[in-house]
Amino acid sequence: MRQPCLLIFLLVGSFFGQAQPRPASKPNIVLVYADDLGYGDLGCYGATKVATPNIDRLARGGLRFTRAHATSATCTPSRYALLTGEYPWRRKGTNIAPGDAAAIIEPGRTTLPAVLQKAGYQTGVVGKWHLGLGPPGGPDWNGEITKGPNDIGFDYSFLMPATGDRVPCVFVENHRVVALDPNDPIRVSFGEPVGNEPTGKDHPELLKMKPSHGHDNTIINGISRIGSMSGGKAARWTDEDLADVLTGKAIDFMDKHRSTPFFLYLSTHDIHVPRVPHQRFAGKSGLGPRGDVILQLDWTVGEILKALDRLGLTGNTLVVLSSDNGAVIDDGYQDGAVEKLSGHTPSGPLRGGKYSAFEGGTRVPLLVRWPGRVKPGVTDALVSQIDLLASLAKLTGRAVPAGQAPDSRDQLSAWLGETKTGRDHVVEHAVSGTLSVVKGFWKYIEPSQGVKINKNTNTETGADAQPQLYDLATDWAERQNVAAAHSDKIRELAALLQEVRKGIVAAK
Asked: DSSP readout, 101-130?
């Protein structure tokens, strides 16, 4: 008679000894933040000239947003807002950062990873950083690199310090440059040249990809960059391997923390310039290197989804995919992107693109998948990436300290598809500093000076000395400025923008 009792005891003991399912309020969170991915670059958003089956699979299993916005029409400010919950135009030094910039986000700030870290998450960032490192004067590339992601809430970091087209072209893991030979120290400058390595300007015959504008300083891996660099030869990356390395590090992080809640911020290099795909993708899209790296981005997403399936984590993982700004075609290199569009429309039906005050600057793809919690479908809820901090704080039961993340609001219900109401209004920020506000389906662009066409990227900037008003319900492409017929709406939205600028009004 002892054996049945012993068996029951062993079964009960085994049950309680196993890791129990985590509460639904603490799912794993994977944020895939693509670079320069346009509204029309994905199959699930209408692209027909390039295939994105893995991202489309993510869309079918989740919620696809048609009115989601990055805060800014370029990289550094959007990333700053995403992580801090503060509009970047409120703070100096949040413009496009040079590769040797000091840390823009100071330790002690409330950040998205810090909120989740306090909620019991293991937090990791892999990929593009572009928010500066180190104290004033910039980081010590040859020693311990302080004031980085590990000091503002990330437990682990594996970074491209800035962008693929800026030096230094090395990886930083936690506080140090990876594979650095101390006998070959790194020097970096965005002023006077350092060292004697050839530049694209002086030696174009050494280039495998030539610049179209700028990007003609130190040559690394056959590509000239912005800025001057010497040393660190053993530590330099190979562009063709970037996606493989970053994807591998992201999967390693998930594998290591499979038994605890984790937050992974995977900030891809694709589809930013220089567009140098791995040979598996080179020439496969028919749209040139820009199309090829869209295929590469899709592969990365597919590998992340496969890893979640393999680890048995799919059902309890919230996956978010978006972009830091809209599309740009020629952004500094002669890669055939313009000539090989073949009818592809990177911004879809939207006007403008990266750098612009028009919708193509900040209206970006946004996909949210959480099986069993987020009902698959499409929503036109008006949302902004600036609200991710407060929304995930709500999800994980954390309060945002008073005075911190001042512009982030709890919009969790909209992000999870439980309501289609979304934000009362969204503020958009162009690289020129021009601000716009969308309320409902009305969009107001404040008067501003400047060129109307960026001659380098051939992008409409949205700059105009006169106020602009568009009815986005009927005019997605912002072709009909109806300001003259709606002076009352102009006054209303101009006043709202001023109140936001002064911090008087909070978005609902």
From this structure: PPPSS-TTS--HHHHHHHTT-EEEEEEE--
| Cα 326 from Cα 462, distance rounded (Å) | 14
Could you report the per-residue pLDDT of 311-359, keeping only the tens digit for each? 999 999 999 999 999 999 999 999 999 999 999 999 999 999 999 999 9
- The one-character DSSP state at 173 is E
Burial of 156 (0-12, 13-18, 19+ CB in 10 A): buried
Confidence tier at 24 by pLDDT (50, 70, 90): low
Task: Give the position of tokens 């970047």.
Answer: 88
Indicate the SS3 state at residue 483: helix
Burial 233-259 (b: 16+ CB within 10 A, else e): eebbbebbebbbbbbebbbebbeebbe
Q: Which two tokens stand for residue 345?
A: 């429309």
SS in 3 state form for 184-242?
Answer: CCCEEECCCCCCCCCECCCCHHHCCECECCCCCCEEECCEECECEEECCHHHECCHHHH
Closest by alpha carbon to 387, among 425, 348, 354, 331? Answer: 425
Q: Could you tell me if residue 397 is left (phi over 0), alpha (psi between -120 and 50 degrees) or otherwise beta?
A: left
Instruction: For residue range 138-185, list pLDDT tens digits in order.
Output: 999 999 999 999 999 999 999 999 999 999 999 999 999 999 999 999
Q: How many residues are present in the chain?
A: 508
For 433, half-sphere exposure in the C-beta direction (CA atoms, 13 angstrom radius) is 9
